[in-house]
Write a sequence for this structure.
């Protein structure tokens, strides 16, 4: 009855979405977006991390959350460490 009225269940919609967006061009665009986004310690991590996680999930839906977190955290590790060291240094005030 659902088929006659044009209503589809979630598994049907999920397969259609996967079929449309799992081509090489779309995955390539998401990979480039992930690589080009830069993390800054000045930015709010709650804004950047979820979008990066969603990009990685789109690139590889089977990737475990631990691996996604690892990729996000290590992506700009050297830059993050350098910024953290600069911010942690005590400020010298001249009198």
């Amino acid at each position: 009855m659902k088929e006659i009225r044009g209503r589809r269940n979630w598994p049907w919609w999920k397969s259609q979405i996967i079929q449309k967006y799992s081509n090489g061009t779309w995955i390539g665009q998401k990979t480039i977006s992930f690589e080009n986004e830069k993390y800054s310690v000045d930015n709010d991590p709650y804004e950047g991390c979820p979008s990066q996680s969603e990009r990685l999930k789109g690139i590889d839906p089977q990737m475990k959350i631990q691996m996604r977190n690892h990729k996000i955290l290590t992506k700009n590790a050297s830059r993050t460490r350098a910024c953290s060291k600069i911010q942690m240094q005590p400020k010298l005030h001249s009198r």
Q: What stands out?
A: The mean pLDDT is 73. The CA atoms of residues 37 and 52 lie 8 Å apart.
